[in-house]
Amino acid sequence: MTSALLHEALAPLRSNPEASAVLFDIDGTLAPIVANATESRVPEPTRQLLIAVARRYGLVACITGRRAADARALVSIGTITYIGSHGAELLKAGWTEAVLDPSMREWVDRIADFRRRADTAELRRSRVRIEDKGPIVAFHWRGATDEQAARAAVDALASQAEAAGLEVHWGRKVMEARPPVPIDKGAGVVNLLRDAHVSVAMFTGDDVTDLDAFRTLRKLRQHDELAHALCVGVRSEEGPPEIVDEADIVVDGTDGVRELLIALVAEADEPAGARDADQPAGVGDADQPAGTSEVDEPAGVGDADQPGGVGDADEPAGTDEADDSRGAGVAADADQPPGAAGAAG
Ligand SMILES: [Mg+2]
After folding, report:
1. Which of 178, 206, 234 is the last residue of a domain?
2. CB neighbours of 203 closer than 8 A, spacing ≥ 6?
3. Contact 315, 331 (CB under 8 A)
4. Ligand 1 centre distance from Cα of residue 271 (Å)
5. Number of domains within the chain
6. Which residues sit opposite 10 in a β-bridge?
7. 201 and 117 inside one domain
8. How many CB atoms lie within 10 A of CB 241?
């Protein structure tokens, strides 16, 4: 995609950034796919650009299958919102904890109860590993001494889960018991946009689960709940063909996403290509002195001496400092206690 076409596609967002939502998947979109998912990371130039985007646009969020808190630790930006567990969890800038979708909330105790009852001495002897994923409980039997016996124990648990009204999902040597509540990234987008005052929204993703977000944005546009919707497909070798077929525009891999970010923050009359890719363009708002936004200088990005008006009113200054979001400190925001979350569900 040429830079001129990219700019044309982004025009509705760029012309009214305060009323625009900019939403991203993480793995394969912001962070390159790696063999071990625990080792994935967002490249620093991408992260700096995302901080610049967060300053300019009304709502910036990552929507992922990961737990919301894990997503924030991975992306390491405290001033944006995270939707975790495929739409079930909401973690806004400044919050200490993610909040569960109300439809999931009533199931949490039942899932926990099921998890406790499943955790017997017999199951432990069979080396089935229980993973507490909040609203989901997973039973892994990979590596059990007797995998067949362990699998039989998990089969019995699956029957019990179904009898308890839970939904059973099988993966690679793992069984998950989940609430029987439809959750997907589309539902997450709806929840996110419900209270956001935006008229334009863009979603960027690379995989099957992102199609739900694409379709939801289109539906919101058709129902005039959005003036514009833009679905950006991230093309990759192992990605599904639908992500390209159903996209409005397509970018190539995580490098293409970085170009997209550059275009989002480029100055009005400046083509994206004119700017150095390593430089987080657009953080240079007219009243911000040049040089304050260099990639190697993350500390300044969210400081109080930043010109006013660049951030969302709900967004506490200083939370997007480089290391903040790795610890609990990011969330210590007196203006927005976790309790406020109920209103956002
Ligand atoms: Mg992905």
Report:
1. 178
2. 23, 24, 25, 63, 189, 210, 213, 214, 217, 230, 231, 232
3. no
4. 28
5. 2
6. none
7. no
8. 9
Better-predicted residue by pLDDT, 115 or 275: 115
* Residues in a beta bridge with 224: none
206 C-alpha to ligand 1 centroid (Å): 5
Model confidence at 96, pLDDT cuts 50, 70, 90, reads: very high
How far is ligand 1, taken at its centre, from the CA of residue 32, in Å? 9
Question: β-strands 20-24, 59-63: how paired?
Answer: parallel
pLDDT of residue 280: 47
Position 83 in a domain:
yes
How far apart, in whole angstroms, are the C-alpha atoms of residue 154 and residue 141?
8
Check: pTM over 0.85? Answer yes or no: no
Q: Which of 144, 159, 178 is the last residue of a domain?
A: 178
Over residues 33-72, the pLDDT tens digits come to 887 777 889 999 999 999 999 999 999 999 998 889 999 9
Let me know if residue 205 belongs to a domain. yes
| CA of residue 190 to ligand 1 center, whole Å | 19
339 in any annotated domain: no
Q: Determine the pLDDT at residue 287.
A: 39
* 217 and 301 share one domain: yes
Note the pLDDT of residue 336. Answer: 39
138: CATH: 3.30.70.1020
Q: Which residues of 60-82 are buried (b: 16+ CB within 10 A; e: fewer)?
A: bbbbbbbbbbbbbebbbbbbbbb
Segment 217-232 shows an average pLDDT of: 98
Enclosing domain of residue 197:
3-101+184-331
Which two tokens mark 16?
């009214």
Question: Distance from the CA of 126 to the center of ligand 1, in angstroms?
Answer: 34
Query: Per-residue confidence at 132, pLDDT binned at 50, 70, 90?
Result: confident
Distance 73 CA to ligand 1 centre (A): 17
Q: What is the pLDDT of residue 270?
A: 52
Tokens 């406790």, residue located = 116
67 contacts 73 by C-beta, under 8 angstroms = no
**Predicted local distance difference test score (pLDDT) of residue 324:** 38
